[in-house]
Amino acid sequence: MSSGHPNIRVFISHGGQLSTIESVHCGVPMIVIPVYGDQPVNAGAVAAAGMALRLDYHTLTKKRLLERLHVVLNNTEG
């Protein structure tokens, strides 16, 4: 990922440490769908900081993902 590219408006990730750090460093908002390991902790941290919206992998639907994308891309409250 090259999150420093000016055309990137949102990053959808599992919340691994390196991609999370890169996204935070570049100021790119995230939608995080953690699965295991450090991912839930990372997702919780960036969500608490207001830099990400979190989705649950086990209840993920197309509708929920599109709703979160709408929130991030239109800079509205989630």
Keywords:
alpha/beta, Rossmann fold, 3 strands
Give a short overview.
GO terms for molecular function: UDP-glycosyltransferase activity. With 78 residues, this protein is α/β, with parallel strands linked by helices.
Describe the fold and architecture.
By secondary structure, this protein is of the alpha/beta class. The chain has one domain (11-73): Glycogen Phosphorylase B (Rossmann fold), CATH 3.40.50. The protein is 41% helix and 12% strand. It contains 3 helices and 3 strands, in the order E-H-E-H-E-H. The chain has helices spanning 17-26, 39-48, 62-73, and strands spanning 11-13, 30-32, 52-54. It has a 3-stranded parallel sheet, sandwiched between helices. Helix 2 links the parallel strand 2 and strand 3. The mean pLDDT is 93. InterPro entries: UDP-glycosyltransferase, UDP_glucos_trans. GO terms for molecular function: UDP-glycosyltransferase activity.
Oligomer: single chain
Shape: globular
The CATH topology corresponds to: Rossmann fold
Total strands: 3
Low-confidence stretches: none
Radius of gyration: 12 Å
Major sheet: arrangement of strands? 1-2-3
CATH class: Alpha Beta
Helix content: 40-55%
Total number of domains: 1
**Overall CATH architecture:** 3-Layer(aba) Sandwich
- Element order: H for helix, E for strand: EHEHEH
Work out the helix count.
Answer: 3
Largest sheet: 3 strands, parallel
Specify the CATH homologous superfamily: Glycogen Phosphorylase B
What percentage of amino acids are in beta strands?
5-15%
InterPro entries: UDP-glycosyltransferase, UDP_glucos_trans
Family: Belongs to the UDP-glycosyltransferase family.
GO molecular function: UDP-glycosyltransferase activity
Keywords: Glycosyltransferase, Transferase
